[in-house]
Design brief:
Elements lengths: L2 E3 L14 E5 L4 E7 L6 E8 L6 H14 L4 E5 L6 H21 L2 E5 L4 H11 L4 H24 L10
Parallel strand pairs: 2-5, 5-6
Antiparallel strand pairs: 1-6, 2-3, 3-4
Helix pairs in contact: 1-2, 3-4
Length: about 160
């Protein structure tokens, strides 16, 4: 899995690297997860949802508040591989969203291949006996926690690679 940055600067190894906030982007729901301060464990923080009273600007503000309250060092935004043209359109939306998040928080946003994370999350929740209603409610935040944990497990000792290098 690859990690690609949004801003053009490679993070310094001396810079605080954790906690990381992970976001599983959806058109209506955004799964949120966070790492611990040592970058070992991810935890689901829940789901933020767009409704007729809550727009994308409100979601971005909620994410900004979460990053401030939790002293987040960077953001990991799920970006699925482009298997078809429809996926490319969604990838463009996600990248625009990443830019908005970066501007609102002042944090570096990295993109992580989270292909199939929602399917993995559903499988985990079925195994743990979650009801269909619980799965529908929690799938996005569990997916964010899963791909964040995958990142933490595979990249704790590696420096992040920046796409704009």
């Amino acid at each position: 899995m690859s990690v690609q940055g949004s801003r053009g600067s490679k993070p310094s190894l001396n810079k605080k690297r954790f906690p990381i906030l992970a976001i599983d982007y959806g058109e209506k729901r955004f799964g949120i997860a966070i790492s611990d301060s040592k970058g070992i464990v991810s935890t689901s923080l829940g789901t933020l949802s767009i409704s007729k009273n809550i727009g994308i600007g409100d979601i971005i503000e909620q994410i900004r508040v979460i990053t401030t309250q939790n002293r987040v060092s960077s953001i990991l935004l799920g970006l699925p591989q482009a298997f078809e043209k429809a996926y490319e359109i969604n990838r463009d939306r996600i990248k625009r969203f990443g830019q908005m998040i970066s501007e609102a928080t002042g944090l570096e946003v990295y993109y992580y291949d989270e292909s199939y994370s929602s399917k993995q999350a559903t499988a985990v929740m079925i195994e743990t006996g979650k009801t269909r209603t619980q799965r529908r409610k929690d799938v996005d935040s569990v997916a964010a926690a899963l791909f964040l944990q995958e990142y933490l497990d595979g990249n704790n000792s590696k420096q992040l690679q920046n796409r704009n290098r």
